[in-house]
Specification:
Elements: H1 2-12, E1 17-21, E2 25-27, H2 31-48, E3 51-53, H3 56-65, H4 76-86, E4 90-99, E5 102-111, E6 117-126, H5 129-145, E7 154-167, H6 172-176, E8 180-191, E9 194-211, E10 214-235, E11 243-260, E12 270-292, E13 295-305, E14 307-309, E15 315-317, E16 320-330
Parallel strand pairs: 1-3, 1-4, 2-4
Antiparallel strand pairs: 4-5, 5-6, 7-8, 7-16, 8-9, 9-10, 10-11, 11-12, 12-13, 13-16, 14-15
Length: 331
């Protein structure tokens, strides 16, 4: 009766193709790991909406009733037999093997009616088995279902970062101190793993006015804004964590005011302004944690070059090195 109930269930849900996944054969990995990856494939196929996927518990119940063990079922003949018992149109069989640091998934969909292989997929992964679970099984499911990734689908990202900025200006730290916090806002638009991104940085500092090493007993203020526009490219398969590289064109402006109340130095009160500074930037990022729902936590190291010619014809770089942590949301 239980078998009949399952047959009625899968045939009446919808006009979708009914399919079952036999736990993959484990070669060099544990049975629990192979079982977990098989479960992930079931979930991936279900989310596509093109299949009615029989749950593991239902399939095991029917096979147990018939005295059939699904372990070791990798041949087409065995797949057809399981498919007939469960009452599905198609069935997935395959294996997961490990050779050194490389794990390989081999899977195929077999027609229960004809016993022929309809589609096959293979996927090689070097690294942690958890990364194979998170990304690799989705790729296997896409290949089995014959679904092409739409590389033209536009995605957006919004990112907030807080980090440390180390300017390269000579004697800068004598006036304003050493490294300071730098907030950054990033927005991006792109397809697949490539994004056009724009960053906005605002850097403000106050310190004690000093000219050529003389303490003027006054105030100094520095304000610097710069925008970078560039291309960010992700490498999702990098080991041990996904990385991205960003090359950008930088536009900025800076101003500094130095004042003193000491009568003998009031002539040294000054204001300096550079309204149009252009340069470049490079950034290397690491994605640490994926929270789900499109949120990711990352770290970055970057370098900005913004050359300025001073009044005494010296060229200085008001850019510098940045280290930051950020939270990214993308869809």
């Amino acid at each position: 009766m239980k078998r009949i109930s399952l047959l009625v269930l899968v045939s009446s849900l919808s006009a979708q193709t009914t399919i079952a996944v036999v736990d993959f054969e484990a070669k060099g990995v544990s049975n629990d790991e192979a079982s977990a990856l098989s479960d992930r494939l079931r979930n991936e196929l279900t989310e596509f909406g093109e299949y009615t996927v029989v749950e593991r518990s239902q399939m095991e119940e029917v096979l147990k009733e018939q005295g059939f063990q699904q372990s070791g079922c990798v041949s087409n003949e065995c797949a057809v037999e399981v498919g007939e018992l469960v009452g599905v149109q198609q069935i997935v069989v395959g294996s997961i093997s490990r050779v050194g640091d490389v794990m390989s998934v081999s899977a195929r969909i077999v027609s229960v009616e004809t016993g022929t292989v309809l589609t096959a997929a293979s996927y090689d992964h070097e690294g942690k088995i958890g990364d194979l679970l998170k990304t690799g099984m989705n790729r296997v499911a896409l290949d089995l279902a014959g679904i092409e990734l739409n590389s033209d689908q536009v995605s957006i990202l919004v990112e907030t970062r807080i980090g440390i900025f180390s300017p390269e200006i000579e004697n800068f730290n004598k006036i304003y101190g050493n490294d300071a916090f730098l907030p950054t806002l990033v927005v991006g638009l792109g397809t697949n793993h490539n994004f056009l991104v724009a960053r906005y940085n605002l850097y403000e500092q106050t310190g004690q006015s000093v000219v050529t090493g003389v303490d003027l007993d006054g105030d100094a203020s520095w304000r610097q804004e710069f925008i970078t526009i560039g291309l960010r490219s992700y490498d999702q398969e990098a080991d041990p964590v996904p990385v991205y590289v960003e090359l950008a064109y930088s536009i900025g402006k800076a101003e500094e005011t130095i004042t003193t109340e000491m009568p003998e130095y009031t002539a040294l009160n000054s204001s300096w302004n550079a309204p149009d500074i252009r340069g470049g930037a490079i950034t290397l990022g690491f994605k640490f944690i994926d929270f789900g729902m499109g949120f990711q936590f990352s770290g970055e190291i970057g370098y900005v070059h913004l050359p300025v010619t001073t009044t005494d014809d010296k060229e200085i770089n008001i850019g510098g090195t940045q280290l930051s942590l950020g939270l990214t949301w993308g869809m």
